[in-house]
Input
Amino acid sequence: QLVDDMLETMYDADGVGLATTQVDVHERLIVMDTSDARDDPRVLINPELVAASEEMTFTDEGCLSVPATYDKVQRHAVVTVRSLDRHGQPQEFEAQGLLAVCVQHEMDHLMGKVFVEYLSQLKRDRIKTKMLKKTRDDARD
Ligand code: K1U
Ligand code: ZN
Output
């Protein structure tokens, strides 16, 4: 049920991933779908990074927990991930492109880390100010 609820939340929010941390569930579970057709859901239970390329990529990220904020973050370009699938069966796959970025972003969420923590203090202060303003504006409406 948790997997289905998380996939529904991710698709409703037009996200490419979601981690349990973001929905205040204390289990290590990630859902992702980076396919163009949005028809290739992936479920990772207890994910582990087993290999990461020396080559890095520097690409734009967003986050459903930090709305309307996008910025470039450095990640491993290729990663190998091992986990259980939604049926509890072991799975291992190599990811590159958006899938590699997304799985590293989601695994950070499981560690309590958000992508803005990779940005400069100046950028983080600006994001905080923008979010506080939005909270105040929303309360006024
Ligand atoms: O975990 C999340 O907050 C979801 C997040 C995942 C993510 C997006 C982009 C790069 C890495 C991880 C999102 O889905 S943000 C919204 C989104 O659909 C998106 C944003 C930028 C590029 C591609 C997709
Ligand atoms: Zn996120």
In short: The pocket of zinc ion (ligand 2) is lined by residues 63-65, 105, 109 (CB under 6 Å). The helical segments are 2-12, 97-110, 121-140.
